[in-house]
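Readers of this paper often ask what the protein records in our data store actually look like. Such a record has a labelled line for the sequence and another for the backbone structure tokens. Nothing more is needed to write down the fold, since each code stands for a local backbone conformation. The record that follows is passed on verbatim for readers who wish to inspect the format.
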Amino acid sequence: MTKRIPLLLAVCCALPVASPVFAADFQTVDTAAILYDAPSQRGKKLFVIRRGTPVEQVVNLEAWVKVRDADGGLAWIEKKHLSGRRTVIVTAAHAEIRERPDASAPLVFSAEQKVSLDYQETAPGGWVKVRHRDGQSGYVRTNQIWGV
């Protein structure tokens, strides 16, 4: 007696298995905007988010995006208020921005909590290169910021 493998099982086993991707898609609020509890201007207005704030894109609809902020809050924003420009926000009481990605490197400047910095690139060892709006740049530890 021959056992037959169901066709669906045979087809599924022959296909390559894809791994889920958990990369976060961060964007920046381009202009001050109202956040809503639903993807509509008829939804409840939650609060105004300031320009330069990084947000994580969670759901993308036609003209609306559900976003998560640094505090973990979820809300809807009109897509037109977002840009591909990347910023990060300081979550530590004081973030130390260093000349090089090294804890012993000279301090370039420090930034207080809630300050937005322009994201430039990720560096090895848990560092990110950032730039302040006044032009100063350097490296900050990823555990002092949110948005990467």
The radius of gyration is 21 Å. The longest helix spans residues 7-14. The mean pLDDT is 86. Helices lie at 7-14.
